[in-house]
Amino acid sequence: KKSESTTSESTSGSSSAASGTRGDTRKLDSSSTGSGFAHRGSKRQKVGPTQYKTMSAAEESKSEWDYDLIVVGGGSGGLAAAKEAAKLGAKVAMFDYVKPSPQGTTWGLGGTCVNVGCIPKKVMHYSALLAAGFHDAKELGWKVEREFDWDKLVDSVGNYIGSLNWNYRVGVRDAGVEYINAYAEFVDAHTVQYMPKKKKKKKKKNKAPPADDGPKTVTAKYFIVAPGGRPRYPDCEGAREFGITSDDIFYWHKKPGKTLVVGASYIALECAGFLHEMGFDTTVMVRSILLRGFDRQVAEHIGDYMVATGMKFVRPAVPVKLEKALGDDGQPTERIKVTFKRTDTGELVEDVYDTVLFAIGRDPCVTGYGLEKTGVKLAERSRKIIVDDEERTNVEHIYAMGDVAEGKPELTPVAIKTGLLLARRLFKSGFKKKMDYNLVPTTVFTPIEYGCIGYSQEEAEEKFGKDNIEVYLSLFGTAELAASHRVDKDEQDLSQPCMCKIVCDKTRNEQVIGFHYVGPQAGEVTQGFAVAMRCGATKEDFDDTVGIHPTAAEEFTTLTVTARSGKDFKKSGGC
To answer: Active-site residue 301, yes or no?
Structure first.
């Protein structure tokens, strides 16, 4: 896929803003008139609730900044903040540029989520669920043939993402945001420089090519730094040369074949999950534990389910070297030989794979942006940007959010809501609401999905004390799974893979402070319970709610077995 950075022009159509001049002739629509914000750098100035006066050239020359706001990064959070600020009357520029992955993959506007994260992952996960559904379909009366086309899937995903990229470009243009497809670097705390794209001009006969004008600089009153993060590679020989990451797999037209997924994060297990369900021989290499940061009991339950369905795990182990595998003739092939170390025994083991995918974590994109010239401070260990509860850095007018902000959830909906609220605090008179990072729901799209809100059992016991926590749980199956006789790789019953678990604070009338659900449609189930938990729902509220039958979610209204009791929490079928 060609890079947007090499194939597209800025959507604004305005050369004046890109070259640093302060003129802006766009009109303020009705949605901008209620903000009470004087539009710095515009040709009209608000003098009353709905009246404007035209600024003279002398008045306009007094404008201190080229923009009211510059956003560095065109991901979910940056887009939300930029468009909302423009809607409120601010003059906004947004920089976005994608550096190709080590394998050369790049993409368009929209950031990680739409291009190499949530969206393509969910589509591939859905494709994998259809594979599992073939078994159910046969058991429930359908005659179906199972045949899978990887190329078709990659094409379908790419076409869908391309349409979203276009929608984002149109949305930015319609919002009045100046989109600059270039890499921005701070020169000082109020100035960034960038290299403008060269416009293709028809060559004239016997005329020398135009001289390179060099980098341009623009200034702003406020900055939001939101360039996101990129996958981390392990420090082992051949990793970058032969391995791929989640930056590549969704555009990878080469059939994965026998695949090694290195890592135990949700990204690792999600990618391994859909590849395995599509029929590829998949192995997961784990250094220590699965799904670090999530509930331990639930994480191991998901791992056990994946093993039961035929997924192979190598743990504990780490890769040491990747190199080209040799063929029978002694010549290098397209396959990859991986040498890895068993960390429990120290034994070195070799195996050969067609694809090696690393998912061992992500690093914030904070280098190369000139942040050191602004005085912005980074956290020593994570190298993320230190911010307060209003996303402000130690430099008063520079803000950071999303994956580069220290201590904040790396989730798309969080970044979007954070961006909206930040833009309103900056440009909407009297608006003070801050982002609430508590009780944020999320879902892991493993083959058996996992939705959670709030505390894990371990976190709750550590914070509130084990004696003050009550945990209710259930292991069960849905009517659909039971009727279709799901079985594991050894033809043993696998019709009860679902789990419900709530963590309650006994000192607050058993308020539910942790919610964990493993089963079908986890995202849909979890979203509704998130609202209830934000309203302070207790175990009694759950018990008093009438369940919808027959569903998986209704299990939360009938929980009786506690972890403390030591009783078997596996349920039998029936009403």
So the answer is: no
